[in-house]
Amino acid sequence: MKLTTLGYALIGLVQAEPCSGYALRRVFETTPMGTYSSSPGSIYPALARLVAAGFLEKRAPAGGGKKLFHVTTRGRDAMNAWLRTPVTEEEVTRSVDLVLLRFAFLENVDEPGVTQSFLASFESALSNRIEQIEAYLESPAGRALGRHGRLAVENGLQGLMTQRQWAATSKKEFRS
């Protein structure tokens, strides 16, 4: 089974703390993770697929009570591999939110250097994308943009520059 973004989000939340399907739905309803659907029609089938594929398991707490989802070894391994994957230019171009979701889940990785490597790859991918956009703006096609188009591209460029500065600053924080 190829994991989806929702699958990784669910595994990451369960890895941080075993919880029920309802509790997971509440996270999507009440936090910035609201970009994912909190409907039972998406969450519960996704959880069922993750259990069937062996990424999660459902079991009752030691003292009894409502069953909670727990991450399996397979789920933990898949999550750790995803978190350690270097950030690509495609991710920077198409899904920076997904990059930041990965970064947030790095909180649960207890290995020196993993966060630094992630941030370095993020900064590098951002730098490459910034160079591409700057070159485009200097090209005949970029110079032919109308005022609105050019300003829209410059807005995106400034956003990428801000993210690159954040990555550089965050790397310094994790050196200490």
From TrEMBL:
<protein>
    <submittedName>
        <fullName>PadR family transcriptional regulator</fullName>
    </submittedName>
</protein>
<dbReference type="InterPro" id="IPR005149">
    <property type="entry name" value="Tscrpt_reg_PadR_N"/>
</dbReference>
<feature type="domain" description="Transcription regulator PadR N-terminal">
    <location>
        <begin position="11"/>
        <end position="80"/>
    </location>
</feature>
<dbReference type="InterPro" id="IPR036390">
    <property type="entry name" value="WH_DNA-bd_sf"/>
</dbReference>
<dbReference type="InterPro" id="IPR036388">
    <property type="entry name" value="WH-like_DNA-bd_sf"/>
</dbReference>
<dbReference type="Pfam" id="PF03551">
    <property type="entry name" value="PadR"/>
</dbReference>
